Amino acid sequence: MPRLAKRTEQVMPFYAVELFKQASALNAQGRDIISLGIGEPDFTAPPQVVETLNRASQAGLSAYTSPAGIAPLRAAIALYYEQHFGAALDPDRVIVTAGASGALLLAAMALIDPGDEVLMPDPSYPANQNFITAAGGIPRLIPCSARQRFQLDAAAIREHWGPATRGVLIASPSNPTGTTIAREDLQALIGEVRQRGGFVIMDEIYLGLYYGDVPQSALTLDDNIVIINSFSKYFHMTGWRLGWLIAPPHMVPAIEKLAASLAICAPSLAQHAAITCFEPEVMRIYENRRLSFKQRRDYLLPELERLGLRVPVAPDGAFYIYADIRQHSQDSGDFSHRLLHEAGVAAVPGRDFGPAHASYSMRFSYTTGLDRLQEAVQRMERFLA
Fold first, then answer.
1. In the 8-state DSSP scheme, what is residue 92?
2. Closest Cα to residue 151, out of 167, 174, 118?
3. Ramachandran region of residue 194, left (φ > 0), alpha (ψ -120 to 50) or beta?
4. pTM higher than 0.85, yes or no?
5. Cis status of the peptide bond prior to 123, with omega within 30 of 0
6. 3-state DSSP percent of the chain in helix, strand and coil, to 5
7. CA-to-CA distance for 161 and 132, rounded, in angstroms?
8. Could you give the CA distance from residue 112 to residue 228 in angstroms, rounded to a whole number?
9. pLDDT at site 327
10. Which residues of the chain are modeled with pLDDT < 50?
11. N or C: lower Cβ tally within 10 Å for the chain?
C-alpha cells in the first residue's frame, strides 16, 4: 500500500466527534441523551432564508459563481460589518467561502510557508491547528490562564515569539471558553505582532453572539487583520457550508487565485439565499434568538457553579461554558464518559482544546432549549450525588 503523507500523523483528532458518535449510538438504542456537546445551534435558518433558497433553485441559480462570491452577498456582508460592528469595509475585500473552514484554509495557504510557526492560545478550537498544519506550518499552543481570560495577550507575544514565528491565530469570542479579548488588550496584542512584522488571523464566527453592550470587530483596530466569519453560528446555517474571509486589499488577488483552484466557489444556492439573512425582518429573528442563548447562559452558569463545576471566567459570547471539574474528578475524559453513559448528558472533555487544562476542564454547550438544560442539570445533580 502507498504510504500516507506525514501530515496525516500531525493532524489533531476531534474527540467531540467521537462523543457525538457515542451519544448517537445510545440514542439509537432508545436512550434519551441531552447533548451539551456539539457546538451546533438548535435553531435553523429562518423561513424567509429557506424561501429564498427555493426561489433560487427554481430559477436555476446553481451555476458556478465568481471565486470571491456573488457581488450582492459581498456587499451585504460589508454593510453588516459597518452597521453592526463599526467597521467601514469595501465589499471587494470580502471573499465568500465554503464555511469558515474554507476561509481558514485560504488564509493559511496565503500566509504560511512550510516551517512557519503560528501562536495560538491553549485552550482553543482544535480544528484550527489543522489548517496551519495543512499549509506546512507549525501550530504552537501557548498555555493561557483564567487571569488572561484564556486568551493570548501582549505579554505572551513578547515571551513566546521566536525566530520561526510568523503570526497568531486567535478567536473572540472563543471556542471553548466563550470569552472575548478586551479591546485594549487586543490593541496591545496587535501592536506586539505588528512590531515583529507578523500577521493576525482573527476568528470572529461568534461575534454576533455577544452578550455585552455593542460588539466591535477587530477591523476597527487594525485594517490589515485577516477576519474569518461564518453563517453557521449566529445565522444558524451549519450544513449550508457558507462563510467569508475579509482580507487586506493587497491579499485579495492571491486569495482569489487560491480560491479559484481550491474551491472554485462557495455553494451557489446558499449564497443567493444568504442575502436574505441581512433583511431587517430576518435580523430581528436572529436578535431574538441571541437573547434566547443569553437566557440559557444566565440559567446554566449559576447552576453549574451550584453543582461544584466551577466556571473560572464567565463567558460573554458564543454558546459555551468552560468549567473546572476538580471538585469531582481529575480526569475529564473519564468524567465525560460516565456523565454520558450514567446520566445521559453529553459534554466535551478538555483534551480537545489543548493540554494545559485538559485533565480537569469540560466544555458545556447550551445549544439546546431551556427545558432540556433544566433536565440536564437535574440529571447531573443526581449523578454527582
1. G
2. 174
3. alpha
4. yes
5. yes
6. 50, 15, 40
7. 17
8. 16
9. 97
10. none
11. N
Amino acid letter, residue 325 = I
Radius of gyration of the chain measured on its C-alpha atoms: 21
Query: What pLDDT is stored for residue 31 in this prediction?
Result: 94
- Tell me what pLDDT residue 12 has: 75
pLDDT at position 39 is 87
- For residues 66 and 376, the answer to whether their CB atoms sit within 8 Å is no
Contact 117, 163 (CB under 8 A): no
pLDDT at position 10, please? Answer: 80
What is the predicted pLDDT for the residue at 11?
80
CA distance 378 to 13: 31
Under 8 Å between Cβ of 103 and 255: no
Beta bridge partners of 200: 168
Residue 270: per-residue pLDDT: 98
Q: Three-state DSSP class for 369?
A: coil
pLDDT number for residue 16: 79
- Check if the beta carbon of residue 154 is closer than 8 Å to that of residue 192: yes
Per-residue pLDDT at 293: 98
Domains of the chain are 7-44+282-384 (3.90.1150.10), 51-279 (3.40.640.10)
Amino acid at 163: P
Please say whether the beta carbons of 324 and 363 come within 8 A. no
